[in-house]
Automatic annotation (TrEMBL):
Family classification: Belongs to the bacterial solute-binding protein 1 family.
Main subcellular location: other
Compartment(s): Cell envelope
Membrane-traversing stretches: none
Key words of the record: Signal, Transport
Species of origin: Streptomyces hyderabadensis
Pfam families from the UniProt entry: SBP_bac_8 (PF13416)
Signal peptide, first to last residue: none
Protein name as catalogued: Extracellular solute-binding protein
InterPro entries (UniProt xref): Bact_solute-bd_prot1, SBP, TAT_signal
Source superkingdom: Bacteria
Lineage: Bacteria, Bacillati, Actinomycetota, Actinomycetes, Kitasatosporales
């Protein structure tokens, strides 16, 4: 049985699964035909500056638990010590729930457990709320989400991942969900101490249409994607970790031996974007930045084309594993062939640093995966761009009663408990003996735990970004220190942290860029095709969208910090 990470990322760790990673990268296509409607009109743009400050909850740092590694340069906090259940702290001394029933619709990856399972019962008893789950297939969640939000039958709580906020979904969020400001803004949040400890940047991202609507999952603003490599093979072969694009190419050619079924890497497009300082493509507003007084979109930059060209050269040189040539960027599960040594480097969510370590610990003890620092293309420090500080949100039905809203906040106050507390263990591990056991300070889920304690309560709200692996503390330390080094060369783009709702007429303008990127790096299209696509993008609305963003900038100013 594979050990389980006591990793605060909770919802973030789902991105490590193939299904969710694919959904997050590709984005969904909502089937929403009528959002807002009689429930209220949409409000394009954003809320920032003084207006946003009045909506934000007061920040009160959690003093219940002290991390082994504090946050630095935007990193998560880290825990490297063994877990002592007898020393767990209490962060919710009394039940805040009033015994009401709350229905929650949320994406779920895997087979949902039975409704009356021991985990759900224990959590509901701890919170004082009867939560009824309406779990939906995470792989097709965008379709269900669109249908539900277009109907009059909206559950009490709906979880919306950032990658599903396309098309008319943002307008539906503004029209369908309750203003939490009266319960959380300013000092009001102090009634819920664990929510008060959520970083302010995450709350700022929870403002939609001029109101505080979302309960966020905070995340580190440094890149969530890491170039992961086989450190054991590097050491055995005497390979040096590359510090420039030329060094990477030289290493890749040296390491590749097709006859021996070994290639250097998978598609390294995401690393190339970081090496050349390309603005983020994870969210549309992050793709814009003010340069010499003018807003520039990522696809318009020379760095963007240079990154694609370098990645194309890797494919052309034959150093990329054949699997990566077949489809989109790293879409298939790379684990087995990475473990077999068929390739040495790949880009993936930071959570796979631990999960690959854990799954190979007993069957392949020499296996060692580690995170490669991003390098500047010319050998200098890279210029990296911040990701948004919250990516998944839970919203409360606008028609919910005050008692239901308070019960939802009671749920969130428990699920946002920090690592090292009884509430965190209950949320992430379930019931000791039934869902997990602890040996030598390492909690390990039982078979029942792997069935019951899945992506449910963790979807409502989460603590500040946390990394903790009692089974592999060296990995936790490595991850946090990687984030700290990465954060030292990470800048915040113009619209960092702002929750921006683009006008629906322009939201699909750049949808075809990712497929074109993949075609270019695989040699199916040329750089000139991207230049033409960018030209078309400008004429079809890109330039007008630029003017629209400029107005937001003029009215709100750039991101703080």
């Amino acid at each position: 049985m594979t050990p389980n990470a006591a990793s605060g990322p909770s919802r973030r760790s789902f991105l490590a699964s193939t299904a969710v990673a694919t959904a997050a990268v590709a984005g969904g296509v909502p089937l929403l035909s009528a959002c807002g409607g009689s429930d209220g009109g949409s409000r394009d743009g954003t809320t920032s500056g003084k207006e946003a400050a009045e909506l934000l909850p007061a920040y009160v740092a959690a003093g219940v638990v002290t991390p082994d590694i504090p946050s630095k340069n935007g990193s998560a906090v880290g825990f490297t010590s063994k877990l002592d259940l007898a020393e767990l702290k209490t962060s919710v001394p009394k039940k805040l729930g009033k015994g009401g029933e709350v229905t929650i619709m949320s994406p779920f990856w895997g087979s949902p457990p039975k409704e009356d399972n021991a985990y759900y019962k224990a959590m509901n008893d701890l919170i004082g709320v009867d939560v009824v789950w309406q779990n939906q297939d995470g792989n097709t969640y965008d379709q269900k989400l669109g249908a539900v939000l277009a109907s009059s039958e909206v559950p009490d709580v709906v979880v919306v991942p950032g990658w599903n906020m396309t098309g008319k979904i943002p307008s539906a969020i503004i029209g369908k969900f309750a203003d939490l400001g009266p319960y959380l803004s300013g000092d009001a949040v102090k009634e819920y101490p664990n929510l008060a400890a959520i970083p302010t940047d995450a709350w700022r991202r929870s403002i939609f249409g001029g109101k505080l609507l979302g309960l966020p999952m905070p995340s580190s603003y440094v890149s969530g994607i890491v170039p992961l490599y086989r450190q054991d093979i590097f050491e055995k072969e005497g390979y040096e970790v590359p510090r420039s694009c030329d060094e990477f190419m030289a290493l890749a050619k040296d390491a590749t031996n097709a006859r021996a079924k070994r290639w250097a890497c998978l598609d390294m497009k995401w690393t190339a974007f970081n090496a050349f300082g390309v603005l983020s493509g994870n969210e549309k507003s992050l793709g814009w930045n003010q340069v010499d007084g003018k807003l520039v979109y990522r696809a318009e930059t020379d760095e963007y084309l240079e990154a694609l060209e370098w990645t194309r050269k890797l494919f052309a040189a034959g150093v990329v594993h054949p699997d990566a040539k077949l489809g989109k960027s790293n879409a298939a599960d790379p684990g087995p062939k990475f473990a077999a040594g068929e390739f040495l480097v790949y880009n993936q969510d930071i959570s796979q640093w631990w999960s690959r370590t854990a799954e190979q610990a007993t069957q392949n003890p020499e296996f060692k995966i580690w995170g490669m620092d991003f390098f500047g293309h010319d050998g200098g420090d890279p210029t990296l761009w911040a990701q948004n500080p919250a990516t998944i949100f839970a919203f409360v039905n606008k028609k919910a009663s005050k008692s239901v809203i308070r019960d939802v906040l009671a749920v969130a106050n428990v699920t946002a408990a920090p690592y090292g507390t009884k509430e965190y263990m209950a949320t992430n591990y379930g019931v000791e003996g039934t869902h997990y056991t602890v040996k030598d300070g390492v909690p390990t889920k039982t078979d029942q735990g792997n069935i019951d304690v899945m992506n449910a309560y963790v979807m409502v709200a989460s603590p500040a970004a946390t990394i903790a692996h009692p089974d592999f503390p060296e990995v936790a330390k490595g991850q946090v220190e990687w984030q700290q080094r990465t954060g030292a060369v990470t800048k915040k783009p113009t619209f960092y942290g702002m929750q921006i709702v683009e006008p629906a007429r322009w939201t699909n303008l750049s949808n075809d860029f990712e497929q074109l990127e993949d075609d270019i790096v695989r040699g199916r299209k040329k750089i000139g095709d991207m230049q033409q696509a960018v030209s078309d993008w400008k004429s079809k609305g890109g330039d007008k969208l630029r003017d629209w963003y400029q107005k937001i900038l003029d009215e709100n100013g750039p991101a703080a910090g």
